[in-house]
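Quick start: load a record and inspect it. Here is RNA polymerase sigma factor SigJ:
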Amino acid sequence: MRSAEDVLATEFDEQRARLFGLAYRLTGSISDSEDVVEETRTRLTGLSGTEDPGGDRPGDLMIRTVAALALERARLAAGRRKHYVGPWLPEPIVTEHHCPATNPLGSVVRAEDVRMAALRIVQQLPPEQRVALVLREVVGLPLTEIAVLLGCTEEQAEHHACRARRTVDEAHPPRRVPASHQHETVQALLAALSAEDQWAVARMLDPRVSVHGDSDGKARTALRPVHGRDRVTRFLLALIRRYATSALKNMRSVLVNGDPGLLLPGSPAGTPFDRAVAPRVVGFAVREGRAAEIHDIVNPDKLTRVRLLAATP
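Running the structure step on this input writes:
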């Protein structure tokens, strides 16, 4: 007969991707999410042989433990972000186009709400609203349990969730479209940029397009969001002209949080490029055949987990 610890370990392994996805939605950080999942395993392993978790199913207990640990980290991160230089974006999950179904990261990014355009908005919410929204809409946790986790009344928990949903709806992030449509749009935009064709670039941009850079002042990108077709066209062409169109030849097509993106390993000054190019991950969100959001992530602290991918053939 299998021990309680063996049963728990098996279920934990089966739930790992789901638990990571929950932590990632709440923290926007791969490293924090991994730490939360491992700490959850440690805590529940200690409980399995010594304490009665109140008759809860192991899966439910795992979810509540992950949520509580992620909330702690989200509250700490909210204070640090006040001193962040420029916009803050979630740490990108970069995968191959044909990511195996067994890859836990691949299973996470297939979810609609984990795309960068949506997660960017959710991460701007206060931690309590973020937790209430995710636990109610993604996990399906009752408001009574959400209230206990947040340390508030059930009415306050519902208020947090409703305000969060209203904020996300008002932001109107682009919804995910079929992969083939995304690929065609991004390839057409890149071709227009490579040709430095201003009008062709503008045609591939949504009228409400925006560029969001994330650097924390450690590399060059926009320190404020760039909004509107005309401004974004000028911004993108200025980047191409500054760093030379040949920089595009060194890029690699990848998926960024399940949507089309680019991985540029960077290039130092003195190479065939005109200027040094910082390593970066660029993600795209598409609306009605045009790029609606562009996410330019150059903060080196957020690229540590994509360098292994950059080094593979």
